[in-house]
Amino acid sequence: MKITTFNPMIVTNDAENVIKLFEDLGFERRHMKTGINDSDISSVRMRYTGEDGKIFHVDIASAPVPKDITTIRMNISDFDETYSFLEDKGFKNAQGDKVTETGSSKSTMMISPTGFSINITEHIKNHD
To answer: What is the dihedral of CA 128, 3, 84, 33, to 10 degrees?
Structure first.
């Protein structure tokens, strides 16, 4: 399994205020994806570059959740391999059997037996 990105992700019903907080901390909006799961779910990738050149990322997803969820975003090179690996470790798909496919990515949130979550995403390289 190859991990290509690993950073925090916040899923919230109040994305604009969370995004504003991170902008006030010095993060900049880098990339936005809308229409996730064929609905009004969206995700914003934010980046902070420190004075020493170190770069940090946080992703903020807007979704109809009753309270904020802090998860780990983990981009991987092979979705099916990672999904099976986590299932073998006792993780469950937070969406039941559903996997979100947007044309440019394939993803889902996996919940560990103890309750922490990892949002796994494979970016599709050659999409239309």
So the answer is: -40
Question: Are the beta carbons of 122 and 74 closer than 8 angstroms?
Answer: no
pLDDT: which is higher, 128 or 18: 18
Structure tokens at 41: 């779910």
Output the six-digit token pair for 22.
């991170």
pLDDT digits (tens, 9 = 90+) for 81-109: 999 999 999 999 999 989 988 888 899 99
Q: Do residues 123 and 105 make contact, with C-beta atoms less than 8 angstroms apart?
A: yes
Contact 42/94 with Cβ under 8 angstroms?
no
DSSP state, 6? E
Evaluate whether 22 touches 7 at the Cβ level (below 8 Å): no
Amino acid making up residue 104:
S
Angle at 59 between CA 79 and CA 65, to 5 degrees: 90
pTM of this prediction? Answer: 0.84
